[in-house]
Fold this protein.
Amino acid sequence: MRAATIQDGKLAVVEHPDPSPGHGHLLVRVRAAGLNGADLHQLRGGYPAPPGSPQDIPGLELAGEVAAIGPGVLGHQPGDRVMALVGGGAQAELALVHERLVSPVPETVTWPAAGGFPEVFTTAHDALFSQCGLRAGERVLVHGAAGGVGTAAVQLAANAGALVTATVRNPEHHRAVADLGAERVVLPEEMGDTGPFDVILELVGAPNFPANFDVLAQGGRISIIGTGAGGRIDLDLRQLMARRARLFGSTLRSRPLEEKATAARRIETHVLPALAAGRIRVPVAATYPLDQVEEAYERFRAGGKLGKIVLEV
Amino acid sequence: MRAATIQDGKLAVVEHPDPSPGHGHLLVRVRAAGLNGADLHQLRGGYPAPPGSPQDIPGLELAGEVAAIGPGVLGHQPGDRVMALVGGGAQAELALVHERLVSPVPETVTWPAAGGFPEVFTTAHDALFSQCGLRAGERVLVHGAAGGVGTAAVQLAANAGALVTATVRNPEHHRAVADLGAERVVLPEEMGDTGPFDVILELVGAPNFPANFDVLAQGGRISIIGTGAGGRIDLDLRQLMARRARLFGSTLRSRPLEEKATAARRIETHVLPALAAGRIRVPVAATYPLDQVEEAYERFRAGGKLGKIVLEV
């Protein structure tokens, strides 16, 4: 099989031996695989794949057809349309996935949309609901709302009855983010005039502090999901106490099988029905064939896009 | 009635009109009232009593007998032995308390112990269990474990099957804190050799950071309850994410009636049986009569004590 491959900090498409599915695993013929910030991080050498995942093939999410099943697989057949979050190795013609980590791809969903769905929707859902316990009627602020996780978060929160304010740096995307369900879309520097918020989803990083605390409601929660613009903040613990604030940090990649499988079941229960019905969608900014993986990463790195960059395989 | 009273940042015992219980309220003849860090903070002008509480009479916790009941009181009679967390006004001969905020004082518990119980045990229980979700078998680090909240936290965690490590600055108290249930008691500067911990209770403040993150387990929780030694930290959000850490800030005083009442019910269910049976106790470092309120505050301010300073009224 051919796969995007990291060699000396650069990407190339390289021939690898076809993988063979072990006990409980599926071999998936990848049709689409999204790019994520973690891929760039890994390319720079800072975010190695967890043990058991391909170390040199990037890609944290994929969609495709089951090509073969390993021994002990109970619930899947060759030909099934599946999508999954993986520890690495998604940006390839073939990939191995444990059968408890895949979810079905609804018939109404295209391959690029399915290939750009798992990472960002699982991340956003886990942060908003599993960590922050967001409920209908609460007020949520999504920073960096035009990106992959941002567009997922705006839709998930609005779909669950929360009132969404979004910050988006590029004014060209304000209208589109409002169309995803945000009641209000502002520039980052305008956030001081918003609030209070019960939940803040931080996808940008340090520059939004300490203003995040100024707009946080009593008992509010902040989930830190992205720090691309900086990771160090000066935190006043007394302010944290006075606000009765809660600050969560999280990553998906390092989690054990059982937690990732639980997250997949939550997505199937709480998100797939809305995705299948078209009430939630995956904004895809651009797709690239596998052979143009370098161009795809270049586009991803440039920023300013609305939604996902996806490789079609 | 006579009451400790804040006048120009100093304390004196001053005569006040006797308060009269309104709808749903009890008039309590105070027998004992503990001192807390928040009292010092209030004395310095930094922590005003919430609306509806006496502004000039300090004291956040009390124990005594019901002297009279207001209209609409359903569950209490004059003579009942009660204790309660209050928004202020406890360090007086008489105090008003909403009947949903009082808990019974077990017969086996002395007045000084009961008067020093509500604030620190409610604070510690709320932080360990309601916020951090501490469960049997988990490893917990309690900083400042010889103080009021610390001695409560060590006992509550050990009583619930957690494995407790404590930091105590004064070596004289290491033996006593171990006797309260800590498996290990170390000096603060020795914390680097401990861990990992699922839960850290921070009662001291900034100086324990960033070391707290070094000893925090994956998915660990830190509850910030005290910042007497400093409140500003340099926080690396990427470290928070990589550890999947959660940071909670909390105070009790500003909470609405319903939350304080819920906290009181939790204490009655989860803590009072152990207190009544003597499995949990309130270490009282010293008691002072109301007339010596200044001496009591002086002793409290000096630090280095084991457990509570309590006024006997």
Q: What stands out?
A: The first helix of chain B runs from residue 37 to 43.
